[in-house]
């Protein structure tokens, strides 16, 4: 025995081993009012509030903080004790292309369901189905309670998606975005400067500098413009130089960061350290499945790893969590209604189980409550509320759910999934229809995940 191994350490070790593997929520009280009180560690911008609470009434948050502040309002509410778990706003995925995620007959549902079951309650995805996560780029997909407003998700603003590459001019054709149209949108989110070549850099120049190309092209268009403003979020942006990012920062434009897709396709990604120092609002997005992450948690894991390995920066779990919640809501232009647990906002809430010691090597942020949320595998999700409505709950709290629900195994734990009513088909039918593509319930590390490692050139 090691001489440093003293009896006290032995006692501490035994205590640690005897501790329950992880805390789970339980129902303390089943009330009649339909209101719900959640008790646990509440994740806020100001920090993680231990032994705190969130109160939900009619789909909205009406109290956050010390339970004593609730007064008599909690009288006939259901009470869920999630001590040891973390209570987080649902994630907002700001960059997907869901229609590319699976094959028919359900062109986009599989991907969306796995997003929902990994803590994502809103998505900007270029495609949609009714129900499940909110689709912030489709007025008809906003779901209960969200005010209608316009998020324009324009994959290729220069209409160069069919392979038009320019260098030194802006002759992308007559349908490119113009300044008046772009600045008129509530939010304009588009791929700009995707790639690491001069043609990618050229895209940003054509959209940020009116003096760059003043000669119209034959057949229309061909002029550079300047759309860089606070309503713009640039997706990808790999072709931008530090000076370009200074322009982005000065104009209050935002960045949607998809590190896994960047690393897989181009072997490099944005210098997140530079972006954050410049004061740019950065949100995470998974991009499509062929090169991106299956869940926001896997995107965050990639972000943490490239920040460290490529840029020598330790990105705190809280910073990554912000990129998936409050920053993402700002990018989407819904920050007054989504993205944080605050009075008046919609109750899009996810509860993540406390992490146990056996969670092992994937446990990047063991002790950190923000890490418990942002790196959580699907198995660790105890509750997903969209607008206060339970769409998923651990089987221990099944009495909280209503409507048509199904018992589904997520790895080693059982969940109650209540999506059949809004989907019009059962979860099991959906799962069966997705044969051959990604499973709806993913293991901790999804199979064949695109790499996030820097490319090694010999
Ligand atoms: C919640 O659970 C914790 C730990 O299991 C316990 O100490 C606490 O008293 C419980 N709170 C309520 C309101 O039941
Ligand atoms: C990334 O940006 C930081 C500034 O925050 C800078 O010091 C560093 O040199 C940059 N790294 C690379 C590889 O460009
Ligand atoms: Zn994309």
Automatic annotation (TrEMBL):
Gene3D superfamilies: Metal-dependent hydrolases, Urease, subunit C, domain 1. Transmembrane segments: none annotated. InterPro entries: Amidohydro-rel (IPR006680), Metal-dep_hydrolase_composite (IPR011059), Metal_Hydrolase (IPR032466), MTA/SAH_deaminase (IPR050287). GO terms for molecular function: hydrolase activity, acting on carbon-nitrogen (but not peptide) bonds. Residues 230-372 form the Amidohydrolase-related domain. PANTHER family: AMIDOHYDROLASE-RELATED DOMAIN-CONTAINING PROTEIN, AMINOHYDROLASE SSNA-RELATED. This is Amidohydrolase-related domain-containing protein. It comes from Xylaria hypoxylon.
């Amino acid at each position: 025995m090691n001489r440093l191994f003293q009896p006290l350490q032995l006692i501490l070790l035994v205590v640690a081993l005897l501790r329950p593997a992880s805390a789970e929520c339980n129902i303390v009280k089943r009330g009649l009012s339909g209101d719900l009180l959640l008790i646990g560690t509440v994740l806020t911008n100001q920090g993680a509030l231990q032994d705190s609470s969130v109160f939900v009434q009619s789909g909205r948050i009406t109290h956050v903080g010390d339970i004593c502040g609730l007064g008599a309002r909690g009288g006939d509410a259901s009470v869920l004790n999630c001590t040891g778990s973390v209570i987080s706003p649902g994630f907002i995925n700001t960059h997907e292309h869901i229609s590319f995620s699976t094959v028919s007959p359900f062109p986009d549902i599989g991907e969306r369901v796995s997003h929902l079951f990994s803590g994502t309650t809103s998505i900007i995805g270029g495609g949609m189905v009714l129900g499940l996560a909110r689709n912030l780029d489709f007025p008809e997909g906003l779901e209960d309670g969200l005010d209608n407003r316009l998020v324009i998700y324009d994959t290729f603003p220069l209409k160069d998606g069919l392979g038009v590459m320019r260098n030194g001019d802006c002759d992308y054709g007559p349908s490119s975005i113009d300044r008046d149209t772009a600045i008129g949108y509530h939010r304009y989110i588009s791929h700009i400067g995707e790639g690491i070549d001069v043609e990618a850099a050229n895209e940003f120049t054509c959209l940020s500098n009116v003096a760059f190309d003043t000669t119209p092209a034959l057949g229309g268009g061909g002029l550079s413009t300047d759309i860089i403003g606070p309503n713009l979020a640039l997706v990808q942006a790999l072709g931008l130089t530090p000076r370009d990012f200074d322009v982005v920062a000065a104009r209050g434009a935002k960045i949607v960061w998809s590190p896994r897709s960047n690393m897989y396709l181009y072997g490099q990604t944005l210098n997140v350290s530079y972006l954050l120092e410049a004061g740019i609002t950065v949100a995470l997005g998974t991009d499509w499945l062929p090169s991106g992450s299956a869940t926001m948690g896997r995107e965050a894991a990639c972000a943490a790893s490239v920040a460290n390995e490529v840029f020598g920066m330790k990105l705190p779990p809280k910073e990554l969590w912000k990129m998936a919640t409050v920053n993402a809501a700002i990018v989407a232009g819904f920050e007054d209604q989504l993205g944080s647990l605050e009075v008046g906002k919609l109750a899009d809430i996810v509860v993540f189980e406390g992490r146990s010691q056996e969670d092992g090597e994937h446990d990047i942020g063991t002790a950190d409550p923000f890490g418990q949320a942002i790196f959580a595998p699907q198995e660790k999700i105890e509750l997903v509320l969209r607008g206060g409505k339970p769409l998923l709950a651990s089987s221990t709290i099944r009495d909280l759910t209503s409507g048509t629900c199904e018992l589904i195994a997520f790895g080693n734990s059982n969940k109650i999934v209540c999506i059949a009513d809004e989907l019009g088909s059962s979860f099991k039918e959906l799962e069966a229809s997705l044969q051959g593509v990604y499973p709806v319930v993913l293991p901790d590390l999804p199979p064949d995940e695109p790499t996030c490692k820097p490319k090694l050139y010999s």
